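Duplicate of #3305? Posting structure anyway:
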């Protein structure tokens, strides 16, 4: 792959890099994205039937079963070269902040630390009624099929149903994660946005904030959107190919 010298220099000289990821970074691990035309999760099932408090109230075991199926996919999956390149990059630059919209743990399993999860985590359920988290982790999922109903476990404190620890439509993002993410976007000199369609707000504002605060922005996406021009680059390629190649070009030799 060929890279603009200006981009390579920006990466080599950056003091603070923000990496901002979406579902596309896990696509090569076999985890479906949300909006890809053929196999996007939301193209098969409208999110309002599964990813809202109203949906959970109406049919908790449908919603819990669907998230157990997603846990199964994540448990079976392995981090891919994109997750690994991001973890490696943290050791190559003075400061790196990793912000993800993903609810999987593939960044952590690739070796990234202190990942900011803007949309929550599959492995951090909490009580739908009292909000408290269980004392022990969920057992490994038992291979449910998509669409199978699974009764949510009861909260050990109040007996209410556990709900997935993810952000649903209409809910606020976790305040700490959000403020850390915006703070990093304001401070960084390079933001690398990987595998996100950039249509879900407020997360989608993060690269825009970095760009307005004069950072360079790089998009890694086989289908990149339109660019502003100045201080903005795109690599129209799969993340698992583009990110290792970028690190090689910038830092090898
Ligand atoms: P989307 O499904 O909206 O977008 C995935 C993006 O990844 C698309 O732009 C694809 O072109 C790109 N892509 C696909 N394969 C790729 C690859 N191998 N390498 C790089 N890019 C690739 O997913 P998100 O932008 O993450 O929120 O969606 C944002 C939010 O919408 C999600 O966090 C979720 C969803 O509703 C909640 O559930 C709160």
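Output from current build:
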């Amino acid at each position: 792959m060929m890279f603009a010298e200006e981009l390579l220099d920006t990466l080599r000289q950056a003091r603070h890099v923000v990496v901002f990821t979406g579902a596309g970074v896990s696509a090569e691990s076999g985890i479906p994205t949300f909006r890809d035309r053929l196999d996007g999760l939301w193209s098969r099932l409208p999110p309002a039937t599964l990813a809202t408090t109203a949906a959970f109230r109406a049919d908790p075991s449908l919603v819990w079963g669907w998230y157990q199926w997603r846990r199964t996919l994540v448990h079976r999956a392995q981090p891919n070269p994109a997750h690994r390149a991001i973890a490696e990059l943290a050791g190559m630059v003075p400061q790196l902040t990793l912000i993800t919209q993903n609810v999987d743990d593939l960044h952590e399993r690739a070796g990234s630390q202190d990942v900011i999860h803007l949309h929550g985590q599959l492995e951090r359920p909490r009580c739908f009624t009292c909000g408290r988290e269980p004392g022990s982790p969920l057992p490994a999922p038992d291979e449910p099929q998509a669409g199978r109903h699974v009764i949510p476990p009861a909260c050990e404190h109040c007996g209410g149903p556990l709900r997935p620890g993810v952000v649903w439509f209409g809910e606020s993002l976790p305040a700490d994660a959000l403020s850390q993410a915006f703070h990093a976007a304001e401070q960084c000199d390079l933001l690398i946005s990987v595998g996100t369609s950039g249509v879900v707000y407020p997360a989608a504002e993060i690269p825009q904030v970095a760009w307005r605060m004069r950072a360079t922005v790089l998009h890694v996406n086989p289908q990149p959107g339109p660019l502003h021009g100045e201080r903005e680059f795109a690599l129209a390629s799969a993340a698992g190919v583009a990110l290792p190649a970028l690190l090689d070009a910038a830092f090898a030799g």
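Confirmed duplicate; merging threads. Residues 22-24, 27-28, 33-36, 40, 47, 51, 101, 119, 167, 195-197, 200, 220-223, 238-239 surround 2'-O-acetyl adenosine-5-diphosphoribose (CB under 6 Å). The mean pLDDT is 94.
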